[in-house]
UniProtKB/TrEMBL annotation:
InterPro entries, alphabetized: MdtA-like_b-barrel (IPR058626), MdtA-like_BSH (IPR058625), MdtA-like_C (IPR058627), RND_pump_MFP (IPR006143)
Subcellular compartments: Cell envelope
Origin organism lineage: Bacteria, Pseudomonadati, Bacteroidota, Bacteroidia, Bacteroidales
Biological process terms in GO annotation: response to antibiotic
Multidrug resistance protein MdtA-like C-terminal permuted SH3 domain: residues covered: 299-359
Stretches assigned to the Multidrug resistance protein MdtA-like barrel-sandwich hybrid domain: 62-198
This protein's UniProt keywords: Signal
Organism: Segatella copri
Protein name, per record: Efflux transporter periplasmic adaptor subunit
MF terms (GO), sorted A to Z: transmembrane transporter activity
Length: 403
């Protein structure tokens, strides 16, 4: 809107300058009065507007793969971009230390079992002596407690063995889920640990989550129209995804959820749309644009350059029967394509509005309506005349310099 308004003002200024330098209507100047404005009569039409929003693409599940034990990588079983299944081996970490720990724990189990057998025999023997009244209850209880302690030590040793075996198993790092392997920053020989950088990321890209944002006012308007946020999400139309190369992804998407927090920096709210990805064309971390259709039958559609906005209110200049303009507020659909508005209230079929040059108007001003075609024709005539005048001036200057 601003560019076209500047063009109009510039053209008028050129005409004024030419007139002051000796131009006249006889010279072909178009009659572009200050009170002439392009005006259109409101009608209805089928509107199929599309609004685009910047978007980021992620797999429905992006899982960082981290080792549970420390050590040197001895083998990398996969390559970047490879599709893997849950539980598939990805890396091997040097296991010699952990194998030794398993052997030590197994030996401790055997020792504990032997001690438990000895304690059992002692208890059984003391039980017979007690039954024969050779020893007292204290000696029997002591033997029983020693046997119980020995059995507990066996359980403790077996738990340590299980832990050692588990750590040995962790030397083979497996995929936590099915998906596609991301970057592999670590190679064979690299030292890794549980507290360090992730070895890679496995992304489940069977379905993609595409994140985009709407303004708080748009969300509020949609929620009020549909009764609730949940109803607004359910009523959200199927969306399209414009890829980085400008093409449209061949599977439609569905908005499934909305963030419950407003971004304090941008004042926007994030929405998530799901897209099927059977061809694995979409990759986690990619970018694109969400295209939201806005189809209406018998809608009043007006260009945004015919409107002015003050905070969250939108105004137009309505032309009355006596050709005076009235600065009037209108309501529009919260979704727009950046060029046009769908008017929901404030305008009626048959109303006339000013299309161009609204920054020069004031409420109640008398104007002379002209058609948009006539307006554009006068702009073209002014530009053409300005060009011819400039060329003539340059030619005269060049000729005047010759002796």
């Amino acid at each position: 809107m601003k560019i076209k308004n500047v063009l109009f003002v510039a053209a008028v200024c050129v005409l004024a300058a030419l007139t002051s330098c000796g131009g006249s209507k006889k010279g072909g100047l178009p009659d572009f009065g200050d009170d002439e404005f392009a005006v259109a009569t409101i009608g209805t039409s089928s509107a199929a507007l599309q609004t685009t929003y910047p978007a980021t693409i992620k797999g429905i599940q992006d899982v960082e793969v981290r080792p549970k034990v420390s050590g040197f990588i001895t083998k990398v079983f996969v390559h970047e971009g490879q599709t893997v299944s849950a539980g598939q081996a990805l890396f091997s970490i040097d296991s010699e230390t952990y194998q030794a720990a398993v052997r030590s724990a197994a030996a401790a189990v055997n020792t504990a079992k032997a001690q438990a057998n000895t304690a059992k025999l002692t208890y059984q023997n003391n039980k017979k002596l007690y039954d024969s009244k050779i020893i007292g209850e204290y000696e029997l209880s002591t033997a029983a407690n020693s046997y119980a302690t020995a059995k507990a030590q066996v359980a403790q040793a077996e738990a340590a063995l299980a832990s050692a075996r588990e750590q040995l198993a962790w030397c083979t790092v497996t995929s936590p889920s099915a998906g596609v392997v991301g970057s592999l920053p670590f190679k064979v020989g690299a030292l890794v640990s549980a507290s360090g950088q992730a070895l890679t990321t496995v992304s489940n890209i069977s379905t993609m989550e595409v994140f985009f944002s709407l303004s708080e006012s748009q969300i509020l308007s949609m929620s009020k129209t549909n009764g609730s946020v949940q109803a607004a999400i359910a009523a959200f139309p199927a969306v399209k995804l414009q890829l980085a190369d400008g093409s449209i992804y061949n599977h439609p998407g569905k908005v499934v959820k909305m963030s419950g927090v407003i971004d304090a920096t941008s004042g926007s709210i994030s929405l998530i749309a799901h897209f099927a990805n059977p061809e694995k064309l979409l990759k986690s971390g990619g970018a694109g644009s969400i295209v939201v259709p806005n189809d209406h039958n018998s809608a009043i559609v007006i260009p945004q350059e015919a409107c002015s906005q003050i905070q969250d209110k939108i105004f137009v200049y309505i032309v009355t029967k006596d050709n005076k303009v009235k600065y009037s507020e209108i309501k529009v659909n919260p979704q727009d394509d950046g060029k046009n508005y769908i008017v929901t209230s404030g305008l009626h079929v048959g109303d006339r509005i000013v299309l161009k040059g609204i920054t020069k108007l004031t409420d109640g001003q008398q104007i002379k309506p002209i058609t948009l075609e006539r307006y554009n024709q006068k702009i073209a005539e002014a530009a053409k005349l300005a060009e011819s005048q400039d060329n003539a001036h340059a030619f005269a200057t060049a000729m005047g310099g010759k002796k």
